[in-house]
Amino acid sequence: MLNALVWALACFGVVAADIALSVVLFSALGVASVFMGFSIDDLDIQLLQAAAQTASFLMALLWWRYLWPRSFMARRQGEHPLGGGAGAAWKRIVCVVVIGLSMQVVISYLCDGVLSLLPEVAADYSELVEETGMGDTSYLAVLTTVIGAPFCEELLVRGIIFEFSLRAFNPQCHPLWKRRRRVNAQDGAIVPWAAPSTWGVAAAIVLQAAVFGFMHMNWVQGCYAGAAGLIFGWVLVTTESSATRSCCTLPLMPARTSWACYGL
Asked: Of 107, 142, 160, 252, which residue is most buried, by most CB within 10 angstroms?
């Protein structure tokens, strides 16, 4: 129980670290604006989002590269590599693109139906969309929505947070993530461990989906992001590839990108 609590808190700690990074970035821009004679309020909100996404991505990438040698995904990909060559890889990409588009269609209809019954919530959400520039269709807005958000969120959530979620519900794998980081591949293969249990993986998928919904900080996006997180977690578990050693979430990019594109 203590192990689960500690790692569950660590999942939310990742979210806190990402928020803190954005606060530091915007504070630095605010200080710079004072000395350089411009107002931060005059900057394009999409430009600010792009800067925040870049900082978030770099933090997540460095963090994940540190965790990777002792991660569940590294061990699992080493023991169960996906085969089939380029042809099978393209089939998997097509499948996750279809999943992304299908999710967007279903979620759009569900959201429209639910929001039609809750006019006050719909009005608040429309105001949020306008204030944050989510409805913007400029080139920079498309880039931050279709490329920036998927890469940042998947690396943070289906990378770091999902790893911590797996640790929360699979204490029998403790020797794996406690081993020395800098070891040879042969040494990693002989680390004694018990494979994650089916229920442990399922619970981890649910936890990372809940954190993913929480990250969006509003009820509308939180609900559908949480539901989408369940599917993205399942996709990650079933489509991991040894070709994605530095970023295990790359198989999810087509689904996330197609989902974002359709939403525009």
From this structure: 252
User: Is 46 within 8 Å of 138 (Cβ atoms)?
Assistant: yes
Q: Are 20 and 28 in contact (CB under 8 A)?
A: no
pLDDT by residue for the chain (264 residues), tens only, comes to: 788 899 999 999 999 999 999 999 988 888 887 788 777 777 777 788 888 999 999 999 999 988 888 888 777 776 666 555 666 667 777 777 777 777 777 877 888 888 888 888 888 888 877 776 666 677 777 788 778 888 888 889 989 999 999 999 988 777 766 665 554 544 544 455 567 888 999 999 999 999 999 998 888 888 888 988 898 888 888 765 433 333 444 445 555 555 555 555
Whole-angstrom Cα distance, residue 136 to residue 48? 14
Distance CA 58, CA 6 (A): 25
Distance CA 178, CA 167 (A): 11
Q: How far is CA 137 from the centre of its chain?
A: 23
Secondary structure class of 243 (helix, strand, coil): coil
DSSP character string of 111-167 = HHHHHHH-HHHHHHHHHHHHHHTTT--SHHHHHIIIIIHHHHHHIIIIIIIHHHHHH
- Report the helix count and the strand count for the chain, using DSSP H and E: 13, 0
- Residues ≥6 apart with Cβ < 8 Å to 240: 73, 76, 77, 82, 248, 251
Given a contact cutoff of 8 angstroms between Cβ atoms, the answer to whether 76 and 50 are in contact is no
Task: Return d(Cα 253, Cα 247) in angstroms, integer.
Answer: 11
74 three-state secondary structure = helix
Dihedral sign of CA atoms 46, 52, 53, 54 in order = positive
